[in-house]
């Protein structure tokens, strides 16, 4: 399968990510950039909530269910908008030139993102060779098999013998819609959804945030898209670490959430959302982010805290100047107390206990961690010198603007969190970083949330300075024919517009083009390497390979030999789980680290005794297991959890197992010892 062949699937993916939310955006009165910037967030509200309700109502998950739910939600939103038209009228869209600049600025962002995707993944159906991918592929397979995409039951992947638990399945629900809509394999859908988040959702979201920061600036809109896909820590870092696809989706929505906060706090410049509408939508944005990944809510809180604090302080200053100092002080104290009280509760809440318990040893000094954050090079990534310098210029600009000082403070806050996780991490700091698993990679991914708008401010300021220098160059005198009166020559007339090549937009594009060689074309090489790290298959299977070339070549045989309803015994550490997910067959062990039933645990330890232990066949019968897949052990052999499945390795000479297919050391068996009426030799 070639990348050209999957272009239609990519377009369907983009439609699912943006389409439902765009319809809802226009229904609630958003227009232009605000509608499209909020569209992915509202799509991620509709899709996972529909999945939960479909499960409650007993409806099988399908594109038709989502389209019907979208139609109902949009209709209700239109009615509500008409009833509340006087309170919250539809927002006026930006001038066409601003929208055109945003649209044109999105084109190179998508082109750069597509290049990173193609070069980093290699093939569109390449499987991610990572621990987290075991769960994600299994979750997709579970949705397609069960017809249930509810986040309320996703934590155990349909393992009926264990209690269901919550897992944010927004990414999985949407990716399953791509599979159901196009018939494409799971791996292709997963890769295209992840790529579309990086090169479409994230740039759109960043454009809305920048638009709220700078107003109707065609220059800022023209460069934001490219800047947003240049940083390594996000979005590409989460495509190369984990892989953290759910986190990728959540943080991709975060800039739009911050843009909403700016509207609610009246800090937006020439606001395109509306204060009342933003306050009404805020809870829905939180729900959407939580269904993408809960720690996105905390990331959003961290950044949003600074504009909210700015708004509270400005309110207090106004009261003080009006002679109501007591009320101002009381308000500030109440706000601080509410924040600290909420933080104190969350810091000990049992629901976050398991997340807070994760420990990653510090790996560098605080000074080095600060330097990495300032150079956009966290976790040992290559330093992005040119882009970081531009962001520093942007920070100076934001500080001088006063109303944007919160952005500099928010950047400092995200740097602080990264430094704590990377250089200090200890039990006493987990109440600060525990909501991100105390993981420096997840916290590093927050940095571009503030550095992207700072870099855009830096580029536009450099363009302004370039324009000022060019203005000092004398223009050639125009020759006016005799008898012709020059309009505007009298005092008080409108100033003559500068030529096109001296407009802020063109000059900003010039600065952006100048950055191209300085950044080696916006760091595509570094970003390709980051993505490739989680997809590469070693020439000789190494400790980081889940599905090697032999196993991938075995997939057609696996699909042919296994019945569609087969439940296959497997060791989740040898890549078999991904193989079964890719061919649409259920794995007895769909992940490497979720609770198992007593029968599953017994088979994991004793399946190889099927011809000698009657209890093995009884357990297999209760579960419905008839086959065993043995793949190559090429992933994390050092991990002690590999030893939890000693009964899943058998020899071809064992009479209790019939060999159905083999390629190298990859083998598919049938449990012949458990055939009806088969005599079993007791121990």
From TrEMBL:
Alphabetized Pfam families for the sequence: DUF6541
Transmembrane segments: 6-28, 35-58, 64-85, 97-117, 186-210, 217-238, 244-265, 277-293, 299-317, 329-353, 382-399, 406-424, 444-463, 506-526
InterPro entries linked: DUF6541
Keywords of the record: Membrane, Transmembrane, Transmembrane helix
Name by which UniProt lists this protein: 4-amino-4-deoxy-L-arabinose transferase-like glycosyltransferase
Species lineage: Bacteria, Bacillati, Actinomycetota, Actinomycetes, Pseudonocardiales
């Amino acid at each position: 399968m070639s990348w050209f062949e999957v272009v239609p699937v990519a377009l369907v993916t983009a439609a699912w990510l943006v389409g439902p939310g765009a319809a809802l955006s226009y229904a609630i009165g958003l227009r232009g950039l605000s509608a499209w910037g909020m569209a992915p967030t509202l799509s991620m509200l509709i899709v996972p909530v529909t999945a939960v309700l479909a499960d409650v109502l007993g409806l099988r998950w399908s594109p038709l269910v989502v389209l019907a739910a979208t139609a109902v939600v949009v209709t209700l939103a239109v009615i509500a908008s008409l009833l509340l038209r006087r309170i919250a009228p539809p927002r006026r869209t930006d001038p066409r030139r601003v929208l055109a600049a945003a649209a044109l600025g999105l084109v190179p962002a998508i082109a750069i993102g597509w290049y990173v995707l193609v070069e980093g993944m290699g093939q569109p159906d390449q499987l991610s060779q990572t621990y987290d991918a075991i769960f994600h592929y299994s979750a997709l397979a579970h949705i397609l098999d069960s017809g249930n995409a509810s986040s309320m039951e996703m934590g155990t992947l349909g393992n009926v013998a264990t209690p269901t638990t919550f897992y944010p399945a927004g990414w999985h629900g949407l990716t399953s819609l791509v599979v159901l809509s196009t018939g494409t394999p799971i791996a292709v859908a997963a890769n295209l959804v992840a790529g579309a988040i990086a090169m479409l959702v994230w740039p759109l979201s960043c454009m809305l945030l920048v638009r709220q920061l700078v107003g109707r600036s065609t220059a800022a809109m023209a460069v934001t898209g490219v800047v947003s896909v240049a940083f390594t820590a996000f979005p590409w870092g989460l495509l190369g670490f984990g892989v953290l696809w759910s986190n990728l989706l959540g943080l991709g929505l975060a800039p739009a959430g911050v843009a909403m906060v700016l509207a609610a706090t009246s800090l937006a410049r020439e606001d395109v959302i509306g204060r009342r509408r933003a306050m009404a939508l805020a809870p829905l944005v939180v729900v959407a982010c939580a269904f993408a990944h809960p720690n996105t809510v905390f990331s959003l809180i961290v950044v949003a805290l600074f504009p909210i604090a700015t708004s509270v302080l400005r309110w207090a200053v106004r009261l003080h100047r009006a002679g109501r100092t007591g009320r101002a002080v009381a308000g500030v104290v109440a706000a601080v107390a509410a924040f600290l009280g909420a933080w104190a509760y969350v810091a000990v809440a049992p629901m976050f206990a398991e997340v807070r318990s994760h420990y990653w040893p510090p790996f560098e000094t605080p000074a080095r961690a600060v330097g990495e954050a300032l150079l956009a090079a966290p976790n040992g990534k290559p330093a992005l010198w040119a882009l970081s310098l531009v962001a520093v210029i942007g920070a100076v600009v934001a500080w001088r603007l006063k109303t944007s000082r919160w952005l500099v403070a928010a950047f400092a806050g995200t740097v602080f969190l990264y430094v704590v996780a990377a250089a200090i991490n200890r039990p006493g700091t987990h109440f600060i970083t525990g909501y991100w698993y105390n993981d420096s990679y997840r916290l590093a991914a927050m940095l571009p949330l503030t550095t992207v708008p700072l870099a855009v401010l830096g580029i536009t300021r450099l363009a302004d300075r370039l324009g000022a220098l060019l203005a000092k160059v004398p223009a050639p005198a125009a020759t006016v024919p005799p008898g012709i009166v020059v309009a505007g020559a009298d005092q008080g007339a409108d100033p003559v517009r500068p030529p096109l090549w001296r407009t802020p937009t063109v000059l900003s594009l010039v600065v952006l083009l100048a950055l191209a060689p300085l950044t080696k074309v916006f760091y595509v090489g570094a970003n390709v390497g980051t993505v490739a790290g989680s997809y590469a298959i070693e020439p000789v299977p190494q400790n980081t390979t889940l599905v090697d070339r032999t196993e991938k070549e075995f997939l057609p045989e696996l699909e042919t030999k296994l019945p569609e309803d087969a439940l296959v015994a497997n060791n989740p550490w040898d890549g078999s789980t991904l193989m079964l997910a890719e061919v649409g067959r259920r794995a007895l062990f769909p992940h490497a680290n979720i609770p198992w039933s007593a029968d599953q645990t017994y088979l994991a330890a004793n399946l190889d005794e099927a011809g000698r232990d009657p209890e093995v066949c009884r357990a297999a019968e209760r579960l419905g297991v008839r086959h065993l897949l043995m793949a190559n052990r090429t992933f994390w052999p050092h991990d002690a959890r590999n030893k939890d499945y000693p009964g899943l390795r058998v020899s071809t000479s064992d009479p209790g197992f019939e060999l159905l297919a083999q390629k190298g050391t990859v083998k598919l068996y049938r449990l012949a010892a458990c055939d009806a009426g088969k005599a079993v030799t007791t121990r």
